Amino acid sequence: MMANKVSFMMQRWSRKKTHFPLLVILLLAFIVFTVLHNERTILQIHEGEDHVHHHREASVTYVKPNRLNPSQDVLDRFSKCNSTRGYSGRRIARVDRSPSSGQRRMASEKCDVFSGEWVFDNASYPLYNEPDCPYMSDQLACHKHGRSDLGYQYRRWQPHNCNLKRWNVTEMWEKLRGKRLMFVGDSLNRGQWISMVCLLQAVIPPNKRTMSPNAPLTIFRAEEYNATVEFLWAPLLAESNSDDPVNHRLDERIIRPDSVLKHASQWEHADILVFNSYLWWRQGPVKLLWSAEDNGVCEELDGLGAMELAMGTWADWVASKVDPLKKRVFFVTMSPTHFWSREWEPGSEGNCFGQKTPIDLESYWGSGSDLPTMRMVNKILSQLSSKVSVINITQLSEYRKDGHPSIYRKFWETLRPEQLSNPASYSDCIHWCLPGVPDWQGRPLSLFPLDWNYLFFLILTLDS
Ligand SMILES: *[C@@H]1O[C@H](CO)[C@@H](O)[C@H](O)[C@H]1NC(C)=O
Ligand SMILES: *[C@@H]1O[C@H](CO)[C@@H](O)[C@H](O)[C@H]1NC(C)=O
Ligand SMILES: *[C@@H]1O[C@H](CO)[C@@H](O)[C@H](O)[C@H]1NC(C)=O
Ligand SMILES: *[C@@H]1O[C@H](CO)[C@@H](O)[C@H](O)[C@H]1NC(C)=O
Ligand SMILES: *[C@@H]1O[C@H](CO)[C@@H](O)[C@H](O)[C@H]1NC(C)=O
């Protein structure tokens, strides 16, 4: 950077040389002085440049992602690696930066809807009743599964500097008319999808709505609006051996780091896309099976590194295929977990089990929300800023230690007596009860202007 500045100044001097000879001499003397006395800085500059141009990292190969290779086997839950070696250092070729959108920055300066607090509001919350939603999941129906403290349902998100509009279901349906809204990701985004379906379905008569069976792509359809609200199971965004929503393996995850095409064929025609991905990268190393590998030879890489590859491949698809005038794309940031009560109450030994109120410590941040992941995601999303809007739920969800199912959900495996005698030991501190935290996520989202206009997003979202 400094080097650039210097050469820029030199050009100017050579033009103005005749007018300011003394000044030029003085400045040149200053530069010589700087060079001689600041070798360390200069060295750093050169190192920085080397890094950018990869002169030194001769071993780095850049892979162009999302190339169709019809002869290639699609990964499924039976896929295996023939052998596994260390990570080769291959990276995803960077997407072209989309021109940054000044409009968006302007809008977000007006009010950060993601900065605020949870206030008790039993007058307007919950936005629907658990038993009234036929699409409720047994994983999230906490009241049905024995939770008796219902304070978690009576919380409204209140941004510090503005008010969100009230939820209006007919308004939302009008915006969705003739459109496909699709959530893509893992079980956290499935929770957000169920929340959205529960919020929306109440006004549709039972004979005018359908829900397709659980499949990688599950579709809720409202006939009179010719609209769908869909969920695509793709926990790792990239193609993987875990793309079956029921039979998947968390322990040996194999991804195709350079392709999202399998999923993209399902999501490419959606009008509004809401992506997430995080927790599936947090369980130890991931196996990479690059498209160019013909012999099933995998590489192994840590979760963060693998997620960066998959996000890069996803970003490549967004950058090359999304026309922001025709499609809205959102990315939901990481969803926090509450496994260690000592993080919000030093000295205690529990987790989310038995927690009945939110954390009221401003900016509380637990160890479940990984900062290096946040930085990596920020970096990738900033390159897509004109095409992807961030739904930054991390901070607001951090406060909600009371919002998880803990033991009040259906568990698929039989619980052992020693587990039953220690409820904290099998508590689910990852997902969110419904009605509950994810309903917030549906609320402002519903108010994004679906006429594709960034600038008016907050104007429409805010109460005047
Ligand atoms: C709301 O909560 C207040 C205070 O706990 C209580 O007095 C009131 O009856 C509640 N209202 C409803 C509608 O549940
Ligand atoms: C919701 O929006 C519709 C259409 O804009 C309006 O007619 C209706 O009164 C609103 N309902 C509520 C409860 O605000
Ligand atoms: C229904 O919506 C789809 C897009 O999702 C559109 O292609 C189709 O023309 C619509 N049908 C009617 C009858 O409006
Ligand atoms: C594994 O190796 C065998 C024999 O070399 C080959 O036939 C098979 O296709 C390989 N598996 C994959 C997934 O490429
Ligand atoms: C989300 O919010 C957190 C703090 O609340 C911030 O550190 C982070 O950079 C934000 N991420 C994105 C992608 O905007």
From TrEMBL:
**Topologically, how does it sit relative to the membrane?**
Single-pass membrane protein
The Trichome birefringence-like C-terminal domain extends over 165-439
Q: In this protein, which residues make up the domain named Trichome birefringence-like N-terminal?
A: 109-163
Q: Which PANTHER family match?
A: PROTEIN TRICHOME BIREFRINGENCE-LIKE 35 (PTHR32285:SF202), PROTEIN TRICHOME BIREFRINGENCE-LIKE 9-RELATED (PTHR32285)
Q: Which family does it belong to?
A: Belongs to the PC-esterase family. TBL subfamily.
CC per GO annotation: Golgi apparatus; membrane
Q: Does the record carry Zinc as a key word?
A: no
Q: What is this protein called?
A: Protein trichome birefringence-like 35
- Show the Pfam families listed in the entry: PC-Esterase, PMR5N
Query: Where does the protein principally reside?
Result: membrane
